[in-house]
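We treat protein structure as text, and this decision shapes the records that our systems exchange. Such a record has a labelled line for the sequence and another for the backbone structure tokens. The record that follows is passed on verbatim for readers who wish to inspect the format:
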Amino acid sequence: MQKLENRSLDRGITIMETLARNGASSLADLHRECALPKSTIRRLLATLMRRRLVRRSLADQLYRINITLAAGSGEPIPANLALLIDVAMPHAVELTRKISWPSDIHIVDNVMMRIVESTRPLSPFHLYRGVVNRRISLFGSATGMVCLSAMQDEEILQFHRQSEGDEIWGLARFNLSFDKYLREIEATRKRGYGVRYTQYLGETVLDDGLAAIAVPLHKAGKPFGGMTVLWPRVFKKHEEFAAEFLSSLREAASRIDAELQRYT
């Protein structure tokens, strides 16, 4: 009986399985792991990216898989992540080219936020760049606070209960009661944009020295992530920075929301 197989399909699946197993990879990584010519890998990656099965992150130029495979490491792939990045990144790139400062795209991930893309490589201001897939504090980050501020207090309480006592991801990290944190959320609502909580210095070993303003991203009318603009904290206070750049950030986020609305 004749054996039926498709060599290109088999190789494409090998690449996806490798990305699912090893995570973010360069072309050299895939060449080493898959034992395929680089020209073949490039051609297959182009097809996989066109079909949104794989993406190449702007922030670090590494390839990542957009779907969950049985060969995966167990790392969750957020629903509609490829769509979000396809929709959001052109607007984030346009924003950075307009104002020069970089922008990160975040999503709510359980009781954390996750950075899924960034325009930091496009900015003339050289900020810390190893950010894609980094988890950051929901309660302390600018995007986390602005997403929570767009929710009802009862919804925020659910996030608190899920992380209560957790000294990394919960309010225990900041030695805050829930009632005191709600005052911070109310201040965020009145301000109209998110900033980092005073005690939050990022997730790097040392203080990353950055400040951020953030606005939420919505799908079906609900906040599911956020968009930031970042700068060195010593450069300007957030009130001064927002006075200059908040309107441009809001316009970009509004365009993303409107485009995502077409897919709901």
Notes: Residues 169 and 250 are 27 Å apart (CA to CA). The chain has two domains: 7-65, 81-261.
